[in-house]
Amino acid sequence: MHQRLKMALGHYETEEVQRNTAEQEHALGGDGTSGSRMMDQSLSALITEYGNRVEEMKQQLQHYQAQMGEMTLKLEEVTKENERLHAELKEPLEKQLEALPFVHLETDIPADEGVDKDQAVERWRTLSQEHDRLQQQYQEQVTKTHILMTERKKQNTNQQFLKTVTEQDVELEQLRKQLRQVKRDGQVANAKLEEMMVLKEKLQSQLERKEEDRISAQEKETASDKRLQQMQSSIKQLEIRLCVAVQDAEQLRAEKVALEEQIRELQAKSARLENETYDAVAKVQDCIQLLEEANLEKSQALFGEKQKEEEIKKLQDEMSQLAENTAARIRKEVDTAKKQCNLQVSRLTEEISALQMECGEKQSQIERAMREKRAVEEELEKIYREHREHESDSRKLEQLHQKYLLAEAAKDDLQRSLQMTQNKLKQLEMNSEEERSRCQEAICKLQSTLDSEREKSAFVSEQRLKLQQENEQLQHEMEGLRKLAVEAQQKAKIKISTMEHEHAVKEHGYEARLKEMEDTSHKSTAELRRLLVAQQKATNRWKEEIKILTETTEARISKLKSELRQQKLRSQELISQLEIANEKVTEDETLMMEYREYIDRLQRRLSQAEQRAATASQQSLVRFLLSTKSIPYFCIWSSEESSSPGNPAIEANLLPVLHDPSQFRVSMNFQPNYPKDPRVQTSCSFSSGTCTEIMDFARTSSVYNCKCFEESCK
């Protein structure tokens, strides 16, 4: 049974080694392979231990068998020597008995002596047969004890094997748990893969959206560039118009001087208007304030025309002669002035309407820019929300946001400038309306004053001299005003040049920012594409790894299932074998009990037979020694302790010394693992003595079945 188990385990080990080599060739390696290797290593270690134990048991059995063979050889030698000595001693004893006188023996020895001798010889034979039979039984018992020892060792090995089987079951359960965990991990990995695929699709859609947004942003940038160019062209046109308006204002001032020379009665009003113009010139720092001066001059020219007409009427009433000459000249000048003023007014109205249209267009553009700004802010917020996790993109977005804030600040400045222009235009309109109302009031007043002036026409002639002097003063003042106007024009030109320079600097800054935006957009698109490629590679690699893991786990599961089935079958076979062995053990134990009882009975019978044989041999020896004088000795004895079960017998031979019958030697043969009896000597020699001394020695050394062949022992 042990050999069969060893063969089965060796076959299983070879199969497992082949399977492991095949798995190492096909699979990439993992936790499952390490677990199977550990199980195989544990199985190989258990198998090697089992083989070593079996080899040790075999060696012990061989050693015991060798010892039993040696003992059997020694027993055969002893029996052969006893038979040879018995044969050698029997012939001289028979010859001596034949040579002895027969008469004395008949008289002395009783008639039953021959019968006792025959009975003693038969008893000796029966005892020798029983001795042989007991030796055989002893050998059988020793073999049975060896069998019991081997069975006990077999039980221990079976228990160890059961322990290993239970450990393997526990390991199999752990492997099952690991397989379940691996399956769960595979499911989690599949879910993660699905999530990654969804994220990949989302990122692809986001990238497409970003590309679309980038294209739209580029389009918006181009549109904004076009709008900036349009704004620059419109600003240049406005500057040109401002220059034209300044020139017109200068012309109007010259006409005003000519009209003021003729108008002397309106000095206070002209002074007030001059003060207002002086204040307006001081306040005018921009190009738009010059338009206010042009409007004021236009109103002054209209007012002057009305005053001129009233003066002409007064002069026609008061001075008929001078009025005819001067009226024609004044009418011509008034007509030309009217035409020029009307043309200037029409031009100014057209310019105001054009400016209003431009303001409306700018407002629409501002509204569009605000809408685009809101759309860009929303897009930036979306991009910022989508790319909060990417730090590098967030930094770029912050830079873009800062650039966008700068653009917004520039837009706000433009809006403020537009609002200022609109406010100034509104103020100009309000001032023009107020001046019209004032002019109407002044016309009414002038009509009322015409009557009074007609009455004062006489007084006018007297005051002409004064007015001429005042005109000279006014001319000097007008020259000062012209100088101030020239200075204001120079300041305006300087401001316009500074504005142009700032505008050019801003244009260069915007162009550099646009280039930076384009570079950053190209870099971000390249990085996003690189990230997409890396992510696609990672997803493909994860898919391949998961496929390999699933295949390896399925193969391991199938192999583990097959191994479990095989181990279950083997465990069932071993359990059946263990049950059979336990039944055999119980049967052997019952047989051992029966054999022990039988051996005890045989030992009791042996002890009784030995006692009887000892008494009979003593009697026969005494009788025989009495009949003989010479002492050739032949003794077989055993110790009293040999009657106890389990102790081997002690055999000894008293070998006679034929040449020197006064001396004899004691030789003994002991069984192994038996303590030597202190009363028995291995060899001894005696001087010639009486038979009683020898018998005493035999009794003291617990010698039985001793025969004496000396005639003097009677």
TrEMBL record:
The lineage of its organism: Eukaryota, Metazoa, Chordata, Craniata, Vertebrata. InterPro entries: SCLT1. This is Sodium channel and clathrin linker 1. Keywords: Coiled coil. PANTHER family: SODIUM CHANNEL AND CLATHRIN LINKER 1. One of its GO terms (cellular component) is centriole. Residues 1-20 are annotated as: Disordered. The keyword Coiled coil applies. One of its GO terms (biological process) is cilium assembly. Residues 47-88, 117-220, 249-276, 305-491, 550-619 form a coiled coil.
